[in-house]
Design goal:
The protein is about 80% helix and about 0% strand. The protein has helices at about 5-15, 20-40, 45-65, 65-80, 85-100, 105-120, 125-140, 145-160, 165-180, 185-205, 210-225, 230-245, 250-265, 265-270, 275-290, 295-310, 315-330, 335-350, 355-370. α1 packs parallel to α3 (about 45-65), α6 packs antiparallel against α7 and α16 (about 295-310) packs antiparallel against α17 (about 315-330). It is elongated. About 40% of the residues are buried.
Length: about 375
């Protein structure tokens, strides 16, 4: 822990000297750098690192040098993220972007824009996310090869995939991989590469290129095996491979993979508590698609998947379960149940700004709601 004397010494000089001389500025900057280094020490608690980042911010505000303010601001934003304070994360990044734009600091503009774009993608405000991410790309160096730039291309590709702009999504995903191949193969770089191949696989599956999708998923798995903590990436890819086999009509192969994943619950539950619900939902979906299933068992499985997703605050998982259950009820002409669960889905999709789920819910409701025939 930094001794209180460090702060008292510098604060005394900064508060009572009429003018900050070069030596004071150098010393204060060294103290700020020391605090930032400590903030990056993941062995300390998130709360303690946030406290130290705020100490650095206090010193920076007294020095009032824009470049130092931005340096501290980038660290402070990340500490708010580590403490799950997303409102403060957005606020500090917005302040950083405003100051960086005013002084034409390209690096800080790209960093703050990328951070804001990532946040808005997380909350599914994709138009806003695309604006900030595209702004970040304008300020990266033309020949810059960095993890941040690769990540920006990846998220833009993800947004385009959601918008069904498949060609653009594929191009930007490949740009991300090209950058990753030129940088140090750290754990984060490998994690991103595994995720990019997973996205390319999903794109291939969506456009009907199922064999290509499976090839990409296997590449994602191969990269994840090189990671220290790549197990969850492998699990996600295996689940997606099972879904691809379902699309190919190979239901036995799909269920074989999914049941294996179900039995491995104890290995991934601590990494992604909601994922077990996803597996259950996909097992039910695959059995229904095969035509060989017990109705009551499938209803129970969908409801269990929904409950697990809600318990672990995964609204997309809950929405998928509700909508798949509504489809089942429609198949068996249980129209009151379709109305109930599709309406619940519509409400949830509206709350969480999930346009695709919202459209699906509206389509289900149109099947059971009397209206004008045209």
């Amino acid at each position: 822990m930094i001794r209180q004397g460090y702060f008292l010494f510098f604060l005394f000089n900064l508060l009572f000297c009429c003018q900050i001389n070069a030596q004071d500025l150098l010393s204060a900057n060294k103290t700020i750098d020391s605090l930032i280094d400590i903030c990056r020490n993941s062995k300390r608690s998130a709360a303690e690192r946030l406290f130290l980042a705020r100490k650095a911010q206090g010193i920076a505000s007294l020095i009032d040098v824009d470049s130092i303010t931005l340096k501290v601001g980038r660290t402070l934003a990340l500490m708010h993220l580590d403490n799950d304070d997303l409102d403060s994360y957005v606020r500090v990044n917005s302040q950083n972007l405003e100051l960086a734009t005013r002084i034409s600091d390209s690096f800080s503009i790209s960093a703050a824009s990328a951070n804001l774009g990532s946040y808005y993608r997380l909350v599914q405000q994709n138009d806003t996310a695309f604006y900030f991410l595209n702004n970040a790309l304008k300020y990266y160096g033309t020949n810059e090869y960095s993890l941040s730039k690769a990540t920006t291309f990846y998220i833009i590709a993800d947004i385009q995939h959601v918008a069904k702009i498949y060609d653009g999504a594929e191009v930007d995903a490949i740009k991300s991989l090209e950058i990753i191949n030129e940088i140090e193969q750290t754990e984060n770089a490998l994690d991103l590469a595994s995720s990019v191949y997973n996205l390319l696989a999903i794109i291939s599956k969506d456009i009907g290129e199922f064999e290509q999708a499976i090839e990409y998923y296997n590449k994602s798995i191969d990269i994840a095996k090189r990671m220290e903590n790549g197990y969850i990436n492998i699990v996600y890819a295996r689940n997606n491979i099972a879904n691809t086999y379902r699309s190919l009509g190979n239901f036995d192969r799909s269920l074989y993979i999914l049941n294996n994943l179900k039995s491995e619950k104890g290995n991934y539950i601590a990494l992604d508590s909601s994922f077990y619900g996803t597996i259950l939902n996909n097992i039910a979906l695959t059995k229904v698609a095969s035509g060989n299933f017990d109705y009551d068992e499938i209803v129970a499985t969908y409801k269990e998947a929904e409950n697990i997703s809600l318990e672990y605050e995964y609204p997309n998982g809950a929405l998928n379960a509700l909508l798949d259950l509504s489809d089942l009820y429609l198949q068996f002409e249980q129209y009151d149940s379709v109305m109930k669960y599709a309406s619940e889905s519509l409400k949830m999709a509206t709350e969480f700004s999930s346009n695709e789920a919202k459209q699906r819910a509206l389509m289900l409701l149109s099947e059971v709601t009397p209206g004008e025939q045209g």
